[in-house]
Design goal:
Helices cover 50% and strands 12% of the residues. By secondary structure, the chain is an alpha+beta fold. It has a single domain, classed as Rossmann fold (3-Layer(aba) Sandwich). A two-stranded parallel ribbon has the order 1-2. Strand 1, helix 2 and strand 2 form a beta-alpha-beta unit. It is globular, with a radius of gyration of 12 Å.
Length: 66
């Protein structure tokens, strides 16, 4: 994203709408990436590649929580 990264977008989204579910999906994983994602406020973290079944299971779990 040219104007902000995913972590900044997550922080901004959660500030505006705390109940919005945010799933961060990335192929660029370093040792601290998942931690930073949760610190930014994401509800779930996925590392690419992600299978459709894994994604659907996660979405289902997150929707049940709501």
């Amino acid at each position: 994203m040219p104007e902000m990264n995913g972590l900044d977008a997550t922080k901004k989204t959660k500030k505006i709408s705390p109940d919005t579910v945010v799933i961060i999906q990335t192929a660029y994983v370093q040792e601290h990436t998942e931690y930073q994602s949760y610190e930014a406020g994401c509800d779930a973290f996925l590392e690419k590649p992600v299978s459709l079944s894994k994604l659907l299971k996660l979405v289902d779990e997150l929707l049940i929580k709501k």
